[in-house]
Specification:
The protein is of the alpha+beta class and about 140 residues long. The chain contains six helices and six strands, in the order E-H-E-H-E-H-E-H-H-E-E-H. The protein starts with 7 loop residues before the first strand and ends with a helix.
């Protein structure tokens, strides 16, 4: 999937509100359920979308249910999550993060792939699909 065509659909009042507040992801549009009872959270979502000039549309519950259930009356179409250094997220030194990633790889929890100067890690697939047993 390329960055230009990658879109995620976020749903639920708190995830949508926090995504709007963080301003870390490119937001394409907001969909709100027609006839939705205005709650304080929904009011905050609409106000934040208005502040950021995000296009939004009203849709029936059935239309929204066709995309995803349990949406709580709001759906947000966003671009990919931006790249962030793991050291920045964890607020740890590069050497500390590297050491822990190596340990997780040695335990079979991560897979490592060298890509030029970069190293990519991903969660290793579990043979039985149960990650909890592996921990």
């Amino acid at each position: 999937m390329s960055r230009s065509t990658s879109h995620d659909l976020l749903y639920g009042r708190n995830p949508v509100l926090e995504t709007l507040r963080s301003r870390r992801r490119e937001v394409h549009n907001l969909v709100v359920q027609q006839g939705l009872d205005p709650s304080p959270t929904v009011e905050k979502i609409l106000a934040e979308a208005d502040r950021q000039q995000i296009p939004f549309a009203w849709r029936s519950r059935q239309e929204m249910d066709n995309r995803v259930r349990n949406h709580q009356g709001v759906q947000l179409q966003v671009g990919p999550y931006p790249y962030v250094e793991l050291t920045e997220i964890l607020e740890l030194a590069q050497s500390t993060v590297s050491r822990h990633l190596k340990m997780l790889e040695e335990c079979g929890l991560l897979e490592r792939r060298k890509k030029g100067l970069w190293v990519e890690y991903r969660i290793a697939p579990s043979p039985d699909g149960n990650m909890q047993r592996r921990l």
